[in-house]
Amino acid sequence: MTTTLQVEERDDRVVVTLSRPEARNAINAAMVRELHDVCALLEERPRLLLLTGDSGTFAAGADIAELRERGREQALQGINSRVFDRIARLPLPTVAAVDGYALGGGAELAYACDVRLASPSAVFGNPEPGLGILAAAGACWRLRELVGASVAKQVLLAGRRLDADDAFRLGLVAEVVPAGDLLKRAHALLDRMARSGPLALRLTKLVADAPGGHPVTDDLAQAILFESDDKRSRMDAFLAGERR
Ligand code: COA
Fold it and tell me: What is the DSSP code (8-state) at residue 161?
């Protein structure tokens, strides 16, 4: 039973909709708990993840009423950073479909996904310093990896908001799609991913995210895949003229 998320389980994917429309889907402790439950589900039985938000907003940040009451102890627990890291490390690819605001922790949640799609009304930003805190759940390093230090610092230090066009131009989002088609397009992207060998996809993600392990990691992962029946049957199919 979830109170802040709508969770739809399918055979090859799980669709999660952040759903606290009365608070613009702000990420509170209950949502963090429920996102951890989703992670447990996907770690136990790896599937693709589609993450989106309800009612024309992705997420307007961490819940400011809760943040206001948190102290040093809670900051050190990394309440949001841990769940976002767990999402980033999910075995199979994750896609964020961002309609409307993705601010603060909401932006960081989107940054933690593997691929982002946006509607024309998407807005990414990290206004944390304006609230007297820093964006401590990934923006200070993930955003830099995604768009480079110069733009990341404009967002983090100068309150720059990236609209959908900016986000597309900077490569932060893969595509800008009318809001009404956003989920359909995200599912089509997941369909494309689902046609790949699941172990190949999983090891590619692991190796792509591996910190400085290359090329040893790549060779080890390839060694596993070279022995797989899936590889043999996919290559046999190609050589027999089948195209997927
Ligand atoms: N935490 C808690 N509540 C939030 C919230 C957040 N991050 N963002 C929005 N809400 C609540 C508002 O307090 C308001 O509640 P109320 O109806 O009880 O007054 C409700 O959601 C609607 O917000 P409102 O500001 O009226 O909506 P809007 O459409 O005019 O503006 C935003 C939307 C996203 C621009 C605006 O809500 C906003 O700036 N939110 C905070 C963004 C932020 O600083 N995030 C970083 C947090 S670390």
Answer: P
